[in-house]
Amino acid sequence: SEADQKSGVPFVVLDRITGAVLDKRALDPGNILLGRETSRLYLSFFRRRAAIMQYDLRTRSILAEEPAPQKADRMLVLDDQDEVLLASPVNGEIYRFDTSTLAAKGSIKAIFGARVMAVDRKLGVLLCGSLVTGEVAFIRLIDHEVVGRIYLGPWLRTIQIDETRGVAFVSS
Fold first, then answer.
1. Distances (CA, A) of 40 to 3, 75, 156, 171
2. What backbone phi and psi angles, to 5 degrees, belong to 26?
3. 163 pLDDT exceeds 80?
4. Cα 162 from Cα 103, distance rounded (Å)
5. pTM recorded for the entire structure
6. Structural contact between residues 171 and 156, judged by C-beta atoms closer than 8 angstroms
7. Which pLDDT tens digit goes with each residue over 94-110?
8. 153: left (phi over 0), alpha (psi -120 to 50) or beta
9. 3-class state of residue 81 by DSSP
10. Rounded to an integer, what distance in angstroms lies between the CA atom of residue 23 and that of residue 9?
11. Rounded to an integer, what distance in angstroms lies between the CA atom of residue 126 and that of residue 5?
12. Rounded to whole angstroms, how far apart are CA atoms 82 and 100?
């Protein structure tokens, strides 16, 4: 999906046992995320398309498509709130969509460069890493307030939470 020239088929669904091609489409998502219902796949687009999509792996069909900000990045599913979160690095916001319909549910003001996200459900905090500033912001889920920021380093890529030990692992 990051190729400057369109060639080949950027979206392919394979049978992992046989390797058979089950579906292929001219979709070039920058990120994909498997939902809690493992037949649902969410797609976001960094280039060429300003949308979020929901693809059904059983029927191999697009269930929903909704407008989203340009250059959207990573996603996260909040099961208990039935929301898909979509980070917008350029806007410094996290957009909220309904997990079933993809209807827009508003946004959360984050930090410039907002890209990667993880939730500490025990603390009720969303951690959001910035690709641009190298900071991680701590956002309360209850009121969406940024309650802290810390600089970690350049090019934050992944955040994983271990709630039992109270530890966040962040790759740079």
1. 26, 13, 27, 27
2. -85, 50
3. yes
4. 31
5. 0.91
6. yes
7. 999 999 999 999 999 99
8. left
9. helix
10. 10
11. 36
12. 8
